[in-house]
Each structure stands twice: as C-alpha cells, then as structure tokens.
Design goal:
heterodimer; A: alpha/beta; Aspartate Aminotransferase, domain 1; Aspartate Aminotransferase, domain 2; seven-stranded mixed β-sheet; 15 strands; 35% helix; B: alpha/beta; Rossmann fold; Luciferase, domain 3; seven-stranded antiparallel β-sheet; five-stranded parallel β-sheet; 14 helices; 20 strands; globular; binds pyridoxal-5'-phosphate; binds zinc ion
Chain lengths: 390, 476
C-alpha cells in the first residue's frame, strides 16, 4: 500500500517518528478542521436552543453518535458519550452498584481493573505469557456466579488479542454480562456489539484519531432499565419540579452536563476518516507493519520481546533490552532521532506483577506509520544494544 | 556507634580501594599544579588524541594531534564548544570510544530539564569518588565515618512510570557473591566496594524531601526535620537549597534553640550569597559551597576563604566563555564550559554545562594558585534586561528576598518586558502586590508589565527541584 494517509497528519511534518499511538493517536487534518469549525464559527450549545447555530452543532454532534453506532454494530440510541474509556467503564460500575461478583483478567489496563476491585468478589483471571486468557479459571468463576466479566480486546502491553467469541459464549451460557475494553482495538478492529453478543464496549476518541476528552460506552439497550445514572444534573432530566424530577430517556439520561462538544464533533470526523479507508484495509496495513516491526526487533541482539510472536497480535510490541533500563532506552531514542516510544508499566502494573516482568519499552503503530519509521527506530536500538549486551 | 564508625571508616576505605584496584584515595589528594598549568597540557593532549582517534563525534571536530602546540589555551582554542544537543544526537555509539562496555555505567539524571545520559568507565567512576572525597574534606573538613544527613529533592513518581533503581545492601550483595561464587570476580568486588562506601564509610542518613508541601510545609512538618537533626546530630547537612532555607527560616521564626551543625552544603541547587548568613545562624555552622553535576561529579569547591570555588584542575579544565565560545576576561559573566580530563570512555570536551558564572585566575589568600570559579545560576534562568545585561538567579533571588515581607518568590519572563512573580509572604504578614510590582519594575528597568501573585507555597519542577527564575537568555 502506498502512503497517501501520511500526508493527512500535520504532526508528522517536523520529521519525528511517532511510535506511541497506543497511548494516543495523531490527528488527521479533517479532525483538526472539524474542531476548528466548531471553535471558529460553529460555537453553540447542543440540545438546548432552537437557533440555527445550536441546530447545526447538535446535528454534527449527533452525527458522531450515529457514526459510532455503525462502527461498533450497534444502534444509535445504544451509544452513551463519556469523557473517555475510563469514564465509560465507571458508568457501568456505578450504574450497577449492587454487583456482588465480577471477573477481570490480570492483563487489564488500570482503568478496567481498579473500578472492579471494590466489588465484594472480584476474580482475577490469569493469562499466560502470550496473553491467552485462562479458560478454565474463567469457567469456574462463571460457574461460581460471576455476574459480569470485564476484558480487554487487545492488551496494551502484550499486544495479545482476546478471543471475544469464545469468552462471549461462556458468558452467555451463564447469563452473565460481558464488558469489552476496546480502547486499543477501536481504530482498526472495532468489536461488534450485537454480532458478538456483547453487553458493553468502552472506547476513547483520542485513540481513534479523534480529540481527547471524549469517549463512549456502547450499551446493549436491554441494560438501560437496570442501570442507574451516576451523574445527575442538566440535560439528563426531562422535568424538574421543586420536589422531584423525571429522567430523559437513555442514552441522554447518562449524559449529564455540557459535553465536550468540539471533541465529539472532531471524533465524528475521525470515524468518517476511518470508515473511508475501511477497517479491513487499516487492519491489513497494520498487520504488515507489525510483522515488519517484530521481524526487525527480533534481529536485535539482547532484545527480548514480550507477548505472542505468532498468531493474532495488535499493532504494538513491548520488549526488554538486556542491561538497559526501559526509561533510558526511551530517552535515548527520543534524544537521538526524535523517536517517541513509551517506557514503564503502561498502566498495567498487575500484569507486570503477574508475569514478574520489569518495565518494558513499547512501540505502537498506527496507519500513518511506515517501514522507514521502524527502520529509524531499530537502527538507534541497534547501536544502543551494542553497548548494552557486550 | 559513631565512634566505631569513625575508627573503621578510613581503614575500610583504604582496604576497599586495595581490594578493587582503585586509586581513589590517592587521587582524592589534590595536586597543586604549577601556576602556568602547563601540566594540564599533557592529559589534555592525551584526551584530544584519544577522542579524535576513537570517538566518531570528535573525529572531524578535532584536529590530528600536533606536537608543536604546547599550551592548554592553544589546544582548546582549536576545539568548538560541545552542546547537550550534540551529545544527545550522537548518544551512545557516536560519543563513546568503542572500549569494552562491560565496565560502563550510565549516569542518568531524572527530571525534565536534564535529559542527558553520561557513560562512565571504571577510571572515571574512580575519579568521581575521589573528587567527592576531596570536596568533602577540603570544603568543611569532613572525614569518612562522620555522621551526615542528606535531604535530596523529592522525585515525583507517577503510576505508569518506572521504579527507581533499588539500593542493594552490602550484606545482601556479599551473600549473593558467596552463593554465586563470585568472590574473586573484579566487577563484583568493585560493586561491593561501592556499596560499602555508600552505606558504611559515609555514615549517611537520608531524610525524605518536602513532597506535596512544595517549598513551604506547615510548621508541624518542619518541626519534624528539626527534631531529626537534633537527634542525629550530623557533622554535615547536605540538602536542596530550598529545604535548607525553609528549615532555617522556621528555626529563626520559632525561637527554637539554634542547631549546631558544623558544615552546611547544598545539593543539586544553589544557595545565593544573600541566604548564607541565615543558614549559618540557624544551623550553627558554616556554609561551604561546591559545584558539580551528574555528568562530571564534583568539579570545584570552596576553601576556608570562601571566595570562589577552587577547580579540581587535575581532573577538569573549566573556562568561562561568551556566546561565540571565546574566553571572557577574569570576573566577567559567561557560560561555563567543562573539559573532563578523566572520562576517556565518553569524552566531554569544552562541554556547555548550562550554568553561567565568572572565573578568577589570581592566587587565593589560602595559597592555592589554580583558577577559582563562581557560579551564579543556570543559563536558562538568566533574565536579559533592557540594556542586554544579565540578571542571574543569584541577583534575582537576592533582590526579591530582600523586599519587605517577601519570604521567597519565583519570576517568569512571559515575553519581552512582561514578568510574572509568584511570591510567598513571611509568616503572618501580607504582601502589597502593587508595591512589589513597582519595585521589581524599577529594579529590572524599562517600563515592564509586572504581574504579582501571592501564593502560600511554591511548586517544584517534575525532577523535585525548585526553579526560581524562568529566564529568557536561552529561550528559543
Ligand atoms: C487498554 C486500555 N484501556 C483503557 C484505557 C484508558 O483510556 P482513557 O485514558 O482514554 O480513558 C487505555 C489507555 O491507555 C487502554 O490502553
Ligand atoms: Zn583558597
């Protein structure tokens, strides 16, 4: 595939190599233009007024909801806006306060781990070094009465892709609920709500080429009557009297207060952009790049990759370089050739504890990366490895 | 216990040097070079020839060794200034000498502004130890085994970040050497020695920093530091300058009995001339200044004349230069350049360390003839006034702290002629914002805009250190 996409990302114009898309993605011009449209001439409150400005802004705001619904195979009223994946997960946790038993895997991001820790029983399902979820433990947890299972679709450290169909079948058998943290996969492999029989999907705009400050919870609507809104205030109400109030219908009942309008509008442009290219084409391109990254990294002496080496894998690679602290590696590649990678626990400390793993260096890819980016990264790593492992 | 440590520390130090083939005790004794410093020419020639031949970055920047050039200044004149950007752009393979990396250590400074990572071989690490011993002895008379207390800057840890390196104990290291039969391995012995030195030879206690309290913790917290110092009775107190001044002011204002700590030093930060008297009165000792950095270790320190820092000129050549890299006259302000004669692994030659100061080549009243350096602040903290003159950290801090009811303050240059001040008032007083703004405006000159904010505490930067001036000398 040629790279007409690269030119859409003005941030790359200064010559940097951006390999930290798992943390947040760069934004293409159409997203910047959409945000700019709202800030420059389109500013207005949404859902409130009848004037033309408000109507136009509301249209574009609601168009994002529709685009997201298509992207995740859901209906428009099944999309609840939040500030990000973290808040989306918390909407479920706070919305179902009487949950007594849940299960999470040990490879979850902190945002899909910490919110569940205060449930009276929270089973930590183990994973192997390739990120395969322990099926037996999951079955036992479900048989013991787990009411909800929260799993990541793609580990932000191991790169492992979870077998959602398998898990979904197990969960359905026991009539439990399944929440999928799709923060990492949403840009190129969006899980399909109804097709996979999922109950909840959480995602963030900023990892899908969109602005920060916006995210969504995609909800199977059968859950709406059981969920309690965790934020109360404007917009989520229909009638308010001196001594009581009635609620709007969902999803609005979960969206109290003025939302991050420009972020949601920008996100709509991002999803359109992704739609235009098509998830299959993006996934193909990322698979090619990921293979190349793994192959190049594998050839560096003293470099130990974590996560699966074959099979399905998300577009990232985390590793240790013998004799070097991860932070030092990240700092050197940045100083040396404007290369951005992450180092540390990547907000998944339980996983590191579970696998007795030191902090890693993580390189992650998006559709705007190319082979030269990987070459530049690996050539600096090569010279670092030379001093580190002799 | 203290007496025992006093007795065993020196012999232990000598023993550990012998055991690990180290030269650091001998090196720690200063060498008095002849006044013309021609003896520096030899090690400098060695360094230049080595760097030219073995270090890619220097290959084209340095000339082939020319035996006719004999003086240090002639040798240096032919070498361009080396910046942090130069080093970073070539790190690691381009700036190292291709020697066996098994013995290398990376010295990494944490925090935001200091990004650099330096590589030191065994020889350089030995020299760092030696320079540290020398600095402690010369500036304050510290001897191994004497009790010292350190209060280093609080490093801010974030949840997604990396753990700090763990400080291994002496006994556990010895145990693992026994278990893995590495008793005779050179590297293990050297590591052991480092640990013995850190934990036993220096009789050192470390207190944690002020953390979330910023520059001005509540009195109860400061009382705990004072109580700790009364209990531990250190000979030497070494702390971040902000911690020193805050604790000293607390002692002054709380009518407590002054302490009696003979030697006060700062680490990783500067005490300004105006703050010395306060520290000496409150802590009941003498302030001894020294100068060093993560890349180099100790570079210079004061003698008992307290009149400039004697450069360890058997280890370093220090110059003060103008924007074009030319040496300025004695007493004039400029950028400090350091050439490290001891690090052949990663040579740093005419390296712009990021500080500004003055140099003085006249003999000191103590009898030493080497150059004396006075550092007045970080280069990026310098405010350039309307006439192009420099106001360094020392100038700015001493001016602000001399203002009525100002306890401490921070200044940021927002843009040319626009300054923002955040000031903390002394206890039970309030700052007149207009008055402070007017006197700063008069001091800096011109008709500047000065915004004054009154705050209750100042926040450190991410690395835990406090930055009092955000200047515009090096702003791009
Ligand atoms: C797997 C995973 N889940 C959840 C999150 C949290 O997303 P946000 O911080 O946007 O709420 C992240 C972000 O790093 C992630 O990688
Ligand atoms: Zn002297």
């Amino acid at each position: 595939m040629s790279e007409p996409w690269r030119d859409d990302f003005p941030a790359l114009a200064d010559g940097m190599v951006y390999l930290d898309s798992a943390a947040t993605t760069l934004k293409p011009q159409p997203v910047i233009d959409a945000v700019r449209w709202f800030l420059e001439g389109g500013t207005a409150a949404v859902h409130r007024a009848v004037h033309a400005k408000s109507v136009a802004a509301t249209d574009r705001f609601e168009a994002t909801r529709e685009a997201l619904a298509r992207w995740f195979g859901a209906d428009t009223d099944e999309v609840v806006f939040s500030r990000g994946a973290t808040e989306a997960i918390n909407l479920v946790r706070r919305g179902l306060p009487s949950l007594g038993h849940v299960a999470v895997t040990v490879m979850e991001h902190h945002s899909n781990f910490v919110p569940w820790m205060d449930v009276p029983r929270c089973d930590r399902i183990s994973v192997d070094t390739d990120g395969n979820v322990n099926e037996q433990e999951l079955k036992e947890s479900l048989a013991a009465g787990a009411q909800l299972v929260a799993v990541t679709h793609q580990s932000n450290v191991l790169g492992a892709v979870t077998d959602l169909r398998m898990i979904s079948e197990l969960v359905q058998k026991q009539n439990a609920a399944l929440l999928v943290d799709a923060a990492q996969s949403a840009s190129h492999d969006p899980p399909q709500l109804h097709d996979l029989k999922l109950d909840f999907i959480a995602c963030s705009a900023h990892k899908m080429l969109g602005p920060s400050g916006a995210g969504a919870l995609i909800v199977d609507r059968k859950w709406y009557p059981k969920m309690r809104p965790s934020l109360l205030g404007g917009h989520m109400v229909e009638q308010v009297h001196l001594d009581g109030w009635t609620m709007q219908s969902p999803p609005h009942s979960f969206e109290a207060g003025t939302p991050a309008i420009e972020s949601v509008i920008g996100w709509g442009a991002a999803v359109n952009y992704l739609q235009q290219l098509g998830p299959d084409a993006i996934a193909d391109r990322l698979a090619t790049l990921t293979d190349y990254l793994l192959q190049r990294l594998g050839a560096i002496p003293g470099l130990n990759l974590v996560g699966p080496v074959s099979g399905r894998r998300g577009p990232l690679a985390a590793f240790h370089l013998e004799g070097m602290e991860a932070t030092a590696v990240a700092r050197i590649v940045s100083q040396r050739d404007q290369i951005c990678v992450r180092s540390g626990y990547h907000c998944a400390q339980p996983l590191h504890e579970h696998l007795s793993m030191a902090p890693t260096v993580r390189a992650s890819l998006q559709l705007y990366n190319n082979e030269q980016d990987i070459d530049r990264f690996c050539s600096v790593l090569d010279s670092v490895a030379k001093i580190a492992c002799m | 216990m203290f007496q025992i440590k006093r007795l065993v520390a020196e012999p232990l130090l000598r023993l550990s040097c012998v055991a690990s083939a180290s030269n650091s005790v001998a090196l720690s004794r200063p060498v008095e070079l002849p006044a013309d410093s021609s003896r520096q020419a030899l090690p400098l020639k060695r360094l230049l020839a080595h760097a030219q031949a073995n270090v890619p970055f220097y290959h084209d920047r340095l000339q082939e060794p020319d035996s006719s050039v004999a003086t240090v200044s002639d040798l240096l004149n032919a070498v361009p200034v080396t910046t942090k950007d130069d080093i970073e752009a070539n790190f690691p393979d381009g700036v190292t000498d291709g020697s066996d990396p098994a013995d290398w250590r990376m010295m990494s400074t944490r925090g935001t502004a200091q990004r650099l990572i330096t590589i030191q071989g065994f020889e350089k690490r030995d020299a760092v130890r030696a320079a540290n011993l020398r600095m402690l002895r010369l500036a304050g008379g510290y001897r191994p085994g004497m009790p010292m207390v350190e209060i280093p800057p609080e490093v801010c840890e974030n949840v997604c970040g990396e753990m700090g390196e763990e400080d291994e104990g002496v006994l556990s290291h010895l145990w693992s050497m026994l278990r893995e039969r590495r008793l005779r391995e050179q590297k293990s012995i050297r590591d052991l020695r480092g640990l013995v030195e850190r934990n036993w030879i220096f009789n050192r206690k470390t207190y944690s920093g002020f953390g979330i309290h910023g520059s001005h913790p509540p009195p109860e917290i400061l009382d705990q530091y004072v109580a700790g110092l009364r209990r531990d009775r250190p000979y030497l107190l070494k702390a971040l300058a902000t911690y020193l001044t805050t604790i000293a002011k607390h002692l002054r204002d709380s009518d407590a009995k002054p302490l009696s700590i003979p030697v006060i030093k700062t680490m990783g930060s500067r005490v300004t001339p105006g703050q010395r008297e306060l520290l000496e009165t409150s802590f009941g000792g003498k302030f001894w200044d020294d100068y060093g950095s993560a890349e180099f270790g100790s570079i210079a320190c004061e003698c008992d004349q307290h009149h400039g820092l004697h450069v360890f000129d058997d280890f370093f050549i220090v110059e003060v230069v103008d924007a074009n890299g030319g040496r300025v006259a004695d007493g004039e302000l400029g950028w400090v350049l350091v050439t490290d004669l001891m690090n052949l692994t990663m040579p740093l030659i005419r390296y712009k360390i990021g500080d500004v100061g003055r140099i003085d080549h006249s003999p000191c009243a103590c009898g030493r003839t080497g150059p004396r350096l006075t550092v007045t602040g970080r280069a990026h903290d310098v405010i350039v006034d309307r006439e192009g003159g420099w106001c360094t950290t020392d100038d700015v801090v001493d001016f602000l702290e001399s203002q009525p009811v100002v306890d401490s303050a921070q200044v940021s240059v927002k843009s040319k002629g626009w300054y923002e001040i955040a000031a903390v008032a002394i206890r039970n007083a309030s700052i007149e914002r207009g008055v402070l703004a007017a006197s700063f405006a008069q001091w800096i000159g011109g008709q500047p805009r000065v915004d004054v904010n009154v705050v209750s505490t100042l926040r450190p930067e991410a690395g835990g250190k406090f930055r009092y001036v955000r200047g515009d000398l090096e702003r791009r």
